C-alpha cells in the first residue's frame, strides 16, 4: 500500500524545508556572483571612461565669437580662497589657492578654472534706448568699483566682491538721461569641449529650474542645446571635483546650455527692467567658482539657492552622507584621512560584532557537525532527497546554516559602494596622503594595498572554510568553489580602484581575522 505525503506529513515538511533551504543557499550564492560581476563591470567601465573622450559636434553649431580684448586692461582680484582676472565684462583664470593642481604634489600650482583655451565667465546687460558696456569697453577703476558713462549720460557702476568661492558682481545703472531706458541682465560661462568623463560621478551641465536640478552629460550637450525657463535659478558645469555656476538675481529668466564650435556655453538671460530718467537700478549676478564640496556649497547656498544639490551622492546617498560625516569628524581628531578610514573601519566592524560573532559561532558549530554529516552522507549516498532532508534536520538541531559565513560580507556590500562614492566625490580625499600613497582617491601606484587585501581575503576565507568543513551539498559546494577564486579576482579588480577603498577592505579583513581568532578562543 502506497503512503502519500501531504502537508501534514512530517517527512514531507522536512523534505520541503530542505528544498527551500537549498534554494536559499543558491540565491545567496547567486547574490555573491552578481556582486562579483557588478564589480567586474564597474572596473571595466571605470577603465574605459578614464581617458578624455572626444566630443562629437553638430556641423551647424556656430563658433564662439572672436573679440579683440588687447586694449582692455586686466585687473587681478583676490581673497584667501581664490584669485581671478577681471578684463572688462569677463572674469577668467580663477585659481583656487587651497587646492593643488597635482593631487600628489602639494607644492604644485593651484587648481585653475576657466584658465585655458579661451574659457571665461561674462556678466553684462543688453540695453534698449541707450548703449550698454560691451566686452571691449574700457572701464575706470576706483578701488573695487569699475565705472563707465556712455554718451547718453547713463552711468554704469560695477562692484565685484568675493565671499568664500562666490564672486558677486553688482551692476548699478543710473539713468541720468532724459528718456526711459531698459536693460536686460545676462551672464554666461564658456569652457572648452575637453571634458573628461568620470565613472561613478556625474559630470556635465547643471541647471536649477523651479527647485529641480536638471542635468545633461557632456555627450548630450555636444549634440544639441537645452533651454529652461525659471525663477531665480542657476546654470553651469560640474566636473568630478570642481564646478562653475552662475545665477542672475531675477524673478524671470531663460537659461541655456549649448555647444559653440569646440566650446560649451551655459548662459542665463533675465527679463528686461525699465529705468526712468533719474532712477537707479542695481542688478546682482553671483558666480560660484570652487570645489564641489557639500559643506562649502551649503554656505554658498545663501547666495545661490539650491547649489548644494549639485553634489552627486548616487543611489546610496543615505549611506554616503553619514560615511562622509564620520570621516570628516575622525579626520578632525587624527588629521589624516588614511588613519580616519582605518578608525571608521574598526567602528563599523565593532557595530557589526553581534552579527559577526553569531556567524562565526555558527560556522564552528558546523565543524563539530562534520562526523554526523559524514555519517548521513554515507548512509544516504543513493537517496539524495533523504540525504538533504536529514542534513537539513541536522542544521535545525544545531541551529546553524552553511551560508552563515557570507552574512558579514553581504552586510558590507552597501557600505562598500557608499565608501566608493564618498571617495570619488570628496575633494578632501583627492590629495589625502597615507604612508606611500599620495592620493587616497586614486589607485595605489605600487599595488601594495591590493596585494595585501588579496592575501588577507585568502587567509580569512581559509579560516572560514576550515570552520565550515567539507560540504558535499551541491549548492554549498558550488558556492565554496566559486569563493576560492574571489581573492585573486578581487586583487585584480581592486588594483585600479581608489586606494582609500582598498585600505578599508584590507583593514576590515585583518580585523575580521582577529575577531575570528578571538571567538575561537572563547569557544574552546
UniProtKB/TrEMBL annotation:
InterPro entries in alphabetical order: Membr_insert_YidC (IPR019998), Membr_insert_YidC_N (IPR028053), YidC/ALB3/OXA1/COX18 (IPR001708), YidC/Oxa/ALB_C (IPR028055), YidC_ALB_C (IPR047196), YidC_periplasmic_sf (IPR038221)
Pfam families (alphabetical): 60KD_IMP, YidC_periplas
GO MF annotations, alphabetized: membrane insertase activity
Domain Membrane insertase YidC N-terminal: 82-326
Keywords noted in UniProt: Cell membrane, Chaperone, Membrane, Protein transport, Transmembrane, Transmembrane helix, Transport
Residues annotated as transmembrane: 31-49, 313-330, 337-356, 409-427, 434-459, 488-514
Domain of life: Bacteria
Presence of the UniProt keyword Protein transport in the record: yes
Record flagged with keyword Heme: no
Family: Belongs to the OXA1/ALB3/YidC family. Type 1 subfamily.
Complex and partners: Interacts with the Sec translocase complex via SecD. Specifically interacts with transmembrane segments of nascent integral membrane proteins during membrane integration.
UniProt-listed NCBIfam families: PRK01318.1-4 (NF002353), yidC_nterm (TIGR03593), yidC_oxa1_cterm (TIGR03592)
The name this protein goes by in its record: Membrane protein insertase YidC
Organism listed in the record: Candidatus Enterousia intestinigallinarum
Amino acid at each position: 500500500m502506497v503512503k502519500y505525503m501531504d502537508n501534514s506529513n512530517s517527512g514531507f515538511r522536512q523534505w520541503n524545508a530542505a528544498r527551500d533551504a537549498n534554494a536559499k543557499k543558491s540565491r545567496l550564492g547567486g547574490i555573491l556572483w552578481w556582486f562579483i560581476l557588478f564589480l567586474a563591470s564597474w572596473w571595466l567601465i571605470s577603465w574605459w571612461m578614464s581617458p578624455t573622450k572626444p566630443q562629437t559636434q553638430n556641423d551647424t553649431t556656430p563658433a564662439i565669437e572672436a573679440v579683440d580684448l588687447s586694449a582692455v586692461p586686466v585687473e587681478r582680484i583676490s581673497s584667501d580662497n581664490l584669485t581671478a582676472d577681471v578684463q572688462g565684462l569677463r572674469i577668467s583664470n580663477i585659481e583656487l589657492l587651497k587646492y593643488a593642481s597635482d593631487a600628489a604634489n602639494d607644492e604644485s600650482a593651484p587648481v585653475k578654472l576657466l584658465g585655458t583655451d579661451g574659457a571665461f565667465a561674462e556678466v553684462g546687460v543688453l540695453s534698449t534706448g541707450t548703449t550698454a558696456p560691451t566686452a571691449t569697453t574700457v572701464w575706470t577703476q576706483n578701488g573695487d568699483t569699475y565705472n563707465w558713462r556712455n554718451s547718453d549720460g547713463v552711468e554704469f557702476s560695477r562692484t565685484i566682491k568675493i565671499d568664500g568661492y562666490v564672486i558677486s558682481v553688482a551692476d548699478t545703472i543710473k539713468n541720468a538721461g532724459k528718456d526711459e531706458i531698459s536693460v536686460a541682465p545676462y551672464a554666461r560661462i564658456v569652457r572648452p569641449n575637453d571634458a573628461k568623463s568620470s565613472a561613478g560621478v556625474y559630470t556635465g551641465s547643471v541647471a536649477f529650474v523651479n527647485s529641480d536640478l536638471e542635468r545633461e552629460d557632456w555627450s548630450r550637450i555636444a549634440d544639441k542645446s537645452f533651454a529652461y525657463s525659471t525663477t531665480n535659478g542657476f546654470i553651469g558645469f560640474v566636473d568630478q571635483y570642481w564646478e562653475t555656476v552662475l545665477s542672475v538675481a531675477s524673478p524671470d529668466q531663460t537659461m541655456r546650455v549649448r555647444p559653440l564650435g569646440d566650446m560649451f556655453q551655459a548662459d542665463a538671460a533675465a527679463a528686461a527692467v525699465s529705468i526712468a530718467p533719474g532712477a537707479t537700478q542695481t542688478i546682482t549676478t553671483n558666480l560660484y567658482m570652487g570645489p564641489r564640496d557639500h559643506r562649502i556649497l551649503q554656505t554658498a547656498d545663501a547666495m545661490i539657492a539650491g547649489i548644494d544639490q549639485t553634489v552627486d551622492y548616487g543611489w546610496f546617498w543615505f549611506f554616503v552622507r553619514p560615511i562622509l560625516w564620520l570621516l570628516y569628524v575622525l579626520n578632525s581628531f587624527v588629521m589624516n584621512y588614511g588613519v580616519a578610514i582605518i578608525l571608521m573601519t574598526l567602528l563599523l566592524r565593532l557595530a557589526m560584532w553581534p552579527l559577526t560573532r553569531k556567524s562565526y559561532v555558527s560556522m564552528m558549530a558546523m565543524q563539530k557537525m562534520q562526523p554526523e554529516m559524514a555519517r548521513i552522507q554515507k548512509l544516504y549516498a543513493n537517496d539524495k532527497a533523504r540525504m538533504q532532508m536529514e542534513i537539513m534536520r541536522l542544521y535545525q538541531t544545531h541551529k546553524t546554516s552553511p551560508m552563515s559565513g557570507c552574512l558579514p560580507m553581504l552586510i558590507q556590500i552597501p557600505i562598500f559602494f557608499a565608501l566608493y562614492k564618498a571617495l570619488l566625490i570628496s575633494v578632501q580625499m583627492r590629495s589625502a596622503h597615507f604612508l606611500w600613497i599620495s592620493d587616497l582617491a586614486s589607485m595605489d601606484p605600487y599595488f601594495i594595498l591590493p596585494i595585501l587585501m588579496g592575501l588577507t581575503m585568502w587567509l580569512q576565507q581559509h579560516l572560514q572554510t576550515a570552520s565550515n568543513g567539507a560540504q558535499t551539498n551541491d549548492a554549498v559546494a558550488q558556492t565554496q568553489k566559486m569563493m576560492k577564486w574571489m581573492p585573486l579576482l578581487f586583487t585584480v579588480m581592486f588594483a585600479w580602484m581608489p586606494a582609500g577603498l582598498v585600505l578599508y577592505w584590507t583593514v576590515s579583513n585583518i580585523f575580521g581575522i582577529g575577531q575570528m581568532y578571538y571567538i575561537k578562543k572563547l569557544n574552546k
